[in-house]
Amino acid sequence: xxxxxxxxxxxxxxxxxxxxxxxxxxxxxxxxxxxxxxxxxxxxxxxxxxxxxxxxxxxxxxxxxxxxxxxxxxxxxxxxxxxxxxxxxxxxxxxxxxxxxxxxxxxxxxxxxxxxxxxxxxxxxxxxxxxxxxxxxxxxxxxxxxxxxxxxxxxxxxxxxxxxxxxxxxxxxxxxxxxxxxxxxxxxxxxxxxxxxxxxxxxxxxxxxxxxxxxxxxxxxxxxxxxxxxxxxxxxxxxxxxxxxxxxxxxxxxxxxxxxxxxxxxxxxxxxxxxxxxxxxxxxxxxxxxxxxxxxxxxxxxxxxxxxxxxxxxxxxxxxxxxxxxxxxxxxxxx
Amino acid sequence: xxxxxxxxxxxxxxxxxxxxxxxxxxxxxxxxxxxxxxxxxxxxxxxxxxxxxxxxxxxxxxxxxxxxxxxxxxxxxxxxxxxxxxxxxxxxxxxxxxxxxxxxxxxxxxxxxxxxxxxxxxxxxxxxxxxxxxxxxxxxxxxxxxxxxxxxxxxxxxxxxxxxxxxxxxxxxxxxxxxxxxxxxxxxxxxxxxxxxxxxxxxxxxxxxxxxxxxxxxxxxxxxxxxxxxxxxxxxxxxxxxxxxxxxxxxxxxxxxxxxxxxxxxxxxxxxxxxxxxxxxxxxxxxxxxxxxxxxxxxxxxxxx
Amino acid sequence: xxxxxxxxxxxxxxxxxxxxxxxxxxxxxxxxxxxxxxxxxxxxxxxxxxxxxxxxxxxxxxxxxxxxxxxxxxxxxxxxxxxxxxxxxxxxxxxxxxxxxxxxxxxxxxxxxxxxxxxxxxxxxxxxxxxxxxxxxxxxxxxxxxxxxxxxxxxxxxxxxxxxxxxxxxxxxxxxxxxxxxxxxxxxxxxxxxxxxxxxxxxxxxxxxxxxxxxxxxxxxxxxxxxxxxxxxxxxxxxxxxxxxxxxxxxxxxxxxxxxxxxxxxxxxxxxxxxxxxxxxxxxxxxxxxxxxxxxxxxxxxxxxxxxxxxxxxxxxxxxxxxxxxxxxxxxxxxxxxxxxxxxxxxxxxxxxxxxxxxxxxxxxxxxxxxxxxxxxxxxxxxxxxxxxxxxxxxxxxxxxxxxxxxxxxxxxxxxxxx
Lengths: 335, 305, 419
Known about the structure:
The structure holds three protein chains of three kinds.
Chain A: H1 2-29, H2 34-40, H3 48-58, H4 64-76, H5 90-125, H6 130-144, H7 147-164, E1 183-184, E2 188-189, H8 193-224, H9 227-234, H10 239-277, H11 282-291, H12 295-323, H13 325-328
Antiparallel strand pairs in A: 1-2
Chain B: H1 30-40, H2 42-59, H3 61-64, H4 96-132, H5 134-149, H6 152-163, H7 167-177, H8 179-193, H9 197-204, H10 209-246, H11 257-264, H12 273-300
Chain C: E1 18-31, E2 34-47, E3 51-55, H1 62-70, E4 77-85, E5 88-89, H2 95-101, E6 106-109, H3 113-116, H4 123-135, H5 139-152, H6 158-161, H7 171-183, E7 189-193, H8 201-218, E8 221-226, H9 229-235, E9 238-243, E10 246-252, H10 253-258, H11 263-270, E11 323-326, E12 330-332, H12 345-350, E13 358-361, E14 364-367
Parallel strand pairs in C: 3-8, 3-9, 6-7, 7-8
Antiparallel strand pairs in C: 1-2, 1-4, 4-5, 9-10, 10-12, 11-12, 13-14
Helix pairs in contact in C: 4-5, 4-7, 5-7, 7-8
């Protein structure tokens, strides 16, 4: 088991390396003067001051190979450079934004797991009931709405309208930015903070919750048909016990993997959600820095995200292996 | 000493009812069965109708839309829906209805073309990886991992920055990013199918490897691909919307729905219709593809009843 | 439809030795194409301590019959009939009552132990669960019981095995573990659904031995569902042969094997390859395939495949009832069961199956005698011979003429059943 973990962790390195290099080359190798590209993008006009700084910083006169090695040499030491625009250390920016993103993400995950799994299980158990049909449509709908549209709709319903219609203060939610820095236990909002948190959290959770509910339902349906469920019933267990004791754990196995795959979608959704609600997290920062062609920030933050994603995948794989004794103990058959 | 089903001479196969009633053992063509089951799924049929409707709208856009996509009615920006402008006007006075109608063309074009690109790349890579296995297989899978490691938004935005913004670059971007899931599905299909006996038989008969791959394994691997492809069109449309929203989508005056939603962001308070109609169009379209995809999946796998 | 209750049934209700009594059960599955009549009039009794084998091909309804006893098939619709367990009808009980019977009084052993055991629970826990549910044992006590049971079925080192997972066992051991699970509350009846089908031949024998030992040990009756006649010969006291959803012959094992009274059973026995066969002798199958259970053939369900079918005649118009044909309790559902007293399995195997060479054409048999050689012996039923009789070697399918053998004769002989 430990060797498996170590192997998986080591696999992250080449993946991250190739991924980031790929990004690197997109900016440096594709047509166009790289400095110009970075300074202004393919269509914009270039600000000569920025252009000069870029060339100096990145030494575009040097051959590409050297630039590449320079970049990686610095990165390995976690020297991510400074922002082109504000000259602030990328590490500091990363720190700040990461905290905000993680807080949002934790809540989205909590909602996703609680709501998604219970909805999925219930609709599988009560298949073809009205509740199941409604849920099917709702989850399909939730995965069909673009995240940002949902964000807008929620904003409209819970913030814009209440403001217009003069709801009392306690009923109004916030749509933009992050509130006062009042958190306990790192992620529990106190005071006004929750008003700012709740809409983005729900929005972010929506897409993944829908997917999770569908997958849980599918998995549970398969489990309900399994032979060992029939065996359990033949022992005289009541239906409830059969489902809870025998079915649940088996149904959850593929769901665990899905939570991991979901993470990728979640990151994408997070970017959009943060952008929509002006939540100052890594996601919205990445978007703005692409717009501003702020390369060090972009590359640095992306590196952090890629690493985090890779780690999450490893954790998911390992926990899957741990939950399923067939994998944990190896397929050792004994006569 | 076991008794298995006696091998029946061909002459007597199926002749169990001397009264000549249709023998239920005779195989009906698979397609008919699948279509029958699909038809019963109401949601899927609704989805299908909407998609057909959308295609017709896209084809006959010039006849349906009262205005062109650039035409401005002076003095009436951000007007709510009226008889003149069914969906109202946007922030520079263009008719939202006409733009949504033409937008159908944009979305369908991007959706279908990008999906085709993804499917092709994914199919080739997945088939090669699954069929040959070994080093090539693992290498390709590592490649998939790399693509998956970078959040798609970042990747898309990065490529878009370089390639510039246009409909075609969006198609290319989404197509090239989206092959990974298909490749995985195809690969695992091939991995399991290639062990089946009829493949062994084909190889033993001396068929070349590519022939075995294409004529024997591929048709069976097709099923998950069809399902995935259908749903993928919907998610491509979503992705296009997201990219437009973030600012790397097609440029003006292309009436891409996602772009229209992005432009509506600032007018949310006083002109919500600018958001509502294109967003609604996206929603209904994607939902239809999801229903159809689900319906296909249920229809192709009868065990799911 | 035939009357499901045998007319001369052995005394049932009064007999306190009878544990289970199935009466006229008709049940099936509604499908898009119609109602599948999987169980179409099944009646039998099981007495204390006996082994009743239910035999049939795939699709004969034997598994569904077994599953219906414990109500383990939720999609099954019961149209009529009763299943009496010690005089209480299982079909009309409350769910709670049924649950107490499952495992406690009647336990089931399933066909594929790999899928029938929960992969994420240890074997010991699954075995012990039975006792926890029915006897309220604690976790510790249940585990002890599990170890005890594993020992009883002959699994070495039961103590450590109890903490292992199903995939860590070999096929035979898994099946033994299932048996251990089934017997842990000493049920009065065990239903074994094809317990050896998923196993290697060598392992099959071991598992069957275990079953025999267990039966004596805990004095339970066994209903053994199988398609393997070899298994039946070694284990069963009585045999019930099913075809197309209903019993077509019932009797003791000896009666079924040596005094067969139904063409189908004869066919089954004849198709078994034997150790003393020469290597190149062809097998003797029953031609054709089992009928659709949605639209069954008219009359006797077996007649399209029956060598002795008299068509047209009552074989294709009247459904034969299960009736007493020999001895005290030997029953068969065939109009001409008594005639089979002269036919043995050996004769069946050594003669040519006329039926095999024929085609059904508008319900009449047409025979291609060119496929036969001089000296071939054939078994035919008494079929009506039309006036214009063809010379051997000539076939006339369209007219539906039937030829008879042996071929060296000049003309056909009427009413000849040649052994």
